Amino acid sequence: MSEQLDPEMFSACGNVVLPMRTHNKWAFRIMVCLEPGRRRFSELRIPLREITPKVLAESLRAMERDGLVTRTAYPGVPPRVEYELTDLGRSLLGPMRVWCRWAEEHLPDLVAARESYDTAV
Amino acid sequence: MSEQLDPEMFSACGNVVLPMRTHNKWAFRIMVCLEPGRRRFSELRIPLREITPKVLAESLRAMERDGLVTRTAYPGVPPRVEYELTDLGRSLLGPMRVWCRWAEEHLPDLVAARESYDTAV
DNA sequence: CAGGATCCGCTTTGATACTG
DNA sequence: CAGTATCAAAGCGGATCCTG
Fold first, then answer.
1. What range(s) does the HTH hxlR-type domain occupy (chains A, B) (predicted)?
2. Which of A12, B65, B68, B80 can pair with B89 through a Cys bridge, CB separation 3.0 to 4.6 Å?
3. CATH at A46
């Protein structure tokens, strides 16, 4: 076995390991939607079916705040707003793909573990 | 620009892309703590300072349910319980490291974006 | 069309105290 | 030691209605 864990292990990194804790439910998918190019608000709503406009707007604003997407509003009627990944946002696509590949590969195991755990109780 | 987004894009994958949505605040750190080897409940509490026993117990049980850790209770007094990563859990360390490397590299950008966004409002 | 405002409820997180 | 019980607070997601 190994020695004691360092008590200061995490003292330097606030939420460093997981900066996108909140607004995650949709952020991943939104980024996937934006990967091929810029999209309008209502275009995003189509694949994200169950999302309400409020939540989509909130998620996009949080992502804009984090510098992951840009929001461009074109004046005029009807209004038009487009969202696009920033360089920072695009740099996240790599790690995301790694994560997704893990999920594709191992999700059945996880689901199976969950089921056997639940039936055992 | 690109064509319309496929409305069925996500219809097949429930929460596939992010299976560990909840219980994430601590799960990442717990996995880091368990990487070198098995640990007892109270050993884990040391680096995870602010965590309450209740939340640690909950997080560990959720991770056990997902097949990421095993829980081994040794009978006797005083009680002793040890937690250890499963193969499935260990398989997640790679993707996690990728994610952490991104965070180390780009978190300053993200924080800066956040600050400039906040002062702009 | 792209959201903002309001209200509501579930879930997650936490502080504190207690127990086999 | 390794948790559980209880209570309280916050976060998160959604329904509905409204507006420039």
1. 13-111
2. B68
3. 1.10.10.10
